[in-house]
Write a structure and sequence with these properties.
Blueprint: E1 2-3, E2 10-11, E3 72-75, E4 85-88, E5 105-109, E6 116-120, E7 160-162, E8 169-171, E9 211-215, E10 222-226, E11 290-294, E12 301-305, E13 368-373, E14 387-392, E15 402-406, E16 413-417, E17 495-499, E18 506-510, H1 511-516, H2 519-525, E19 560-564, E20 571-575, H3 588-628, H4 646-649, H5 651-673
Antiparallel strand pairs: 1-2, 3-4, 5-6, 7-8, 9-10, 11-12, 13-14, 15-16, 17-18, 19-20
């Protein structure tokens, strides 16, 4: 066997191709083309389709068998009663259905004619259940057939008969049975290879029980079994069926795998149906069905191929929307047919308001769409709360009809919505003249009660609490401390702060006294009545009280001055005016005290110098010792003392012991010799 390296088709050695041709067989040694199937010429296949219908394959040169004919033809049914329909050429033979049977019923007799019965006219021949029972020609046996026509068959036991094995022929009456001949049967058994080994016998021969070596159908196994049995191994065929999708999987297949009988079942391109054809190679045919896409009301329809209805937009309908109104208006504004909810009603509401005599002028609000978000916790950062839209009725809003109203202070008249109708303030100042006759009411526009006229203030107006701004009198720069009042202001009672003559403190004087007094009175008012702090040329303080002008002369100073001698022991008081140029001299006692003091001072200086010299000397010695370093003490010389040995210590004892032992030995030797 030789297998094609591309399609794996099996060829016998005698059928092995000798030329390299393309799949369709038109081109020898096809050239390589990267854009075509390998081993393909790239041209149209053009092979005659199977079964032959007169059309050729329209695919490019391809491996394997050609698909069924896909062309559409007009074909009638078998009986021709139906009009021709468009069908694919491979399935152009079709039946409109079996012909209906005759619906009438009639009385009909059976084949043997013994019984009659009312039966459908479409079933004229029928058999009864009675046995014929007629006597045969032999006059010994009766016919055992059931309801038959014509003569009965001859007696099966008449004429020459053979024994069961057929070797012996006997001529016996039909009343006697042919006995076995006693020879070996030797009839060919059902296996077709061996003969029966039993003696001549009646009835069929037994099955062949001879043991033979048999090869299974696929030729892969061999086994010794009875000849009558067929040897089938358990090896399943791994080859693909003609669909090249399913394996044969038949046990012990002889190589000729049956065609695939499964339904293709692959989903068609329409995504709605599956391929109903028998399992085949290549792509499935497109779905031949169509779908209708209609508008919301169904009056406009568009026919599209099956599967395109999901991506095809519904056709535009020119009919008026027939959805009934969902608000209190009986007639809705006409609009075209559409999907989803109708647009909101834009007519005026028109309901009678309860708060006034007007009607609602808002757009219809019986069905307002609001969005409500779900308030459940988010399970992940990617999840969001969905918004749910609901249509709910909303109450009529406040009346917005404009009406004319005047403010409380009668400053202006404006137009305002009806729901705001009532007393209102325009926000301007009242502006009426207060009782002080100087200012006007600054309160926000309000109702005025018991006003004498349109210019004067009433009881509801404010009371003037501002300070008086009128000038008090000439020469005074202060304002009136009273509240705003009618008429002229009185004398200024405000205290004025002024510096006194000596500039040591501030003096507070009434403004009216200061402006109305003369020079002498002014000087008296500005005096603090204290001592003058100014210093004279002599160095003493002025003895006058706070005064205007320069202080007294230093020659008139009456202060006492203490005059001392040079040693500060003697002192004497003189007036300041007489003490200029006066000096006090020391006496004899003062001189003695000075000499004694000088002597003590020199003695202390001498003692102090001696102590300093002593300290200096100690520091020099300390520095020299530190510079020479620390003196080392002489080390003690260690004398070498030799310790006596053990022998030298016990030498005498050892010698005495040796002498005694020697003497004893000599004495003992002499005693033994005698």
């Amino acid at each position: 066997m030789w297998f094609c390296p591309k399609c794996r088709c099996e060829y016998k050695q005698t059928e092995r191709p000798k030329e390299y041709i393309c799949f369709c067989g038109e081109t020898v040694n096809p050239k390589f083309d990267p854009w075509s199937i390998p081993h393909s010429c790239g041209k149209v296949c053009a092979r005659q389709l199977t079964p032959k219908c007169g059309h050729s394959c329209l695919l490019l040169c391809h491996p394997g068998p050609c698909p069924p004919c896909p062309k559409m033809v007009q074909a009638r049914c078998h009986c021709g009663s139906q009009p021709p329909t468009s069908r694919r050429c491979c399935a152009k033979e079709w039946s409109c259905g079996p012909c209906p049977l005759c619906p009438e019923r009639s009385t009909q007799s059976c084949i043997c004619g013994r019984n009659r019965s009312i039966r459908p006219c479409a079933e004229p021949q029928w058999l009864c259940t009675e046995v014929c029972g007629k006597l045969l020609e032999c006059s010994n046996h009766s016919c055992s057939d059931i309801c038959h026509r014509g003569k009965c068959p001859p007696c099966p036991k008449s004429g020459k008969r053979t024994c069961p094995c057929g070797k012996t022929t006997l001529d016996l009456p039909c009343t006697e049975d042919v006995p076995p001949c006693g020879d070996t049967c030797e009839l060919l058994l059902s296996c077709g290879h061996h003969n029966c080994t039993r003696r001549c016998h009646s009835g069929p021969c037994e099955t062949c029980r001879q043991m033979v070596n048999k090869i299974c159908r696929c030729g892969k196994r061999e086994k010794s079994i009875q000849c009558s049995q067929e040897f089938i191994c358990d090896i399943k065929c791994p080859k693909l069926k003609n669909c090249q999708r399913h394996q044969c999987r038949r046990k012990c297949c002889h190589g000729q795998c049956p065609p695939c009988e499964q339904i293709c079942g692959r989903q068609l391109s329409c995504k709605n149906h599956k391929c109903p054809s028998v399992c085949h190679r290549g792509l499935c045919y497109p779905c031949p069905l169509t779908k209708d896409v209609s508008c919301n009301c169904g009056s406009t329809t568009l026919t599209v191929p099956c599967g395109r209805e999901r991506v095809t937009k519904p056709p535009k309908c020119s009919q008026v929307c027939k959805t009934p109104s969902n608000c209190h208006h009986l007639i809705r504004k006409s609009h075209r047919c559409h999907f989803g909810p109708c647009p909101p009603c834009k007519q005026i509401c028109g309901y009678k308001l309860a708060s006034c005599d007007h009607s609602c002028r808002m757009a219809c609000h019986d069905n307002k769409t609001i969005s409500r978000a779900e308030s459940r916790p988010l399970t992940s950062p990617w999840t969001t709360n969905h918004e749910e839209k609901q249509s709910i009725p909303i109450r009529c809003g406040p009346c917005s009809v404009p009406v004319m109203r005047t403010c409380l202070g009668e400053h202006e008249t404006i137009s305002m919505p009806c729901f705001k109708d009532g007393e209102f303030s325009c926000g301007r100042p009242c502006g009426r003249l207060l009782s002080c006759d100087n200012h006007r009411c600054q309160l926000q526009c309000h109702t005025v009660i018991q006003a004498p006229d349109e210019e004067r203030s009433g009881l509801d107006c404010e009371q003037c609490e501002k300070p008086c701004i009128k000038p008090i009198q000439s020469g005074c720069t202060h304002e009136c401390l009273r509240r705003c009042h009618p008429g002229e202001c009185g004398d200024c009672r405000q205290m004025v702060k002024r510096q006194c003559h000596c500039s040591s403190m501030s003096v507070y004087v009434k403004c009216c006294e200061l402006t109305s007094s003369d020079d002498s009175s002014t000087k008296l008012l500005l005096s603090c009545k204290g001592n003058c702090p100014k210093m004279l040329k002599c160095g003493h303080q002025c003895s006058l009280h706070c005064h205007f002008g320069p202080c007294i002369d230093a020659k008139d100073c009456s202060r006492k001055i203490v005059v001392r001698c040079p040693c500060k022991r003697l002192k004497k008081d003189y007036p300041c005016s007489e003490a200029q140029g006066i000096s006090l001299e020391c006496n004899e006692e003062c001189r003695k005290i000075v000499m004694k003091t000088e002597k003590e001072r020199k003695e202390q200086e001498r003692i102090q110098q001696e102590e300093e010299m002593k300290l200096h000397k100690e520091e020099v010695e300390k520095y020299e010792r530190k510079k020479q370093g620390r003196k080392r003490r002489p080390r003690k010389q260690q004398e070498d003392v030799e310790e006596p040995s053990w022998f030298s210590v016990h030498r005498n004892v050892i010698i005495a012991t040796v002498v005694v032992v020697a003497i004893l030995a000599v004495v003992i030797h002499i005693a033994l010799a005698e």
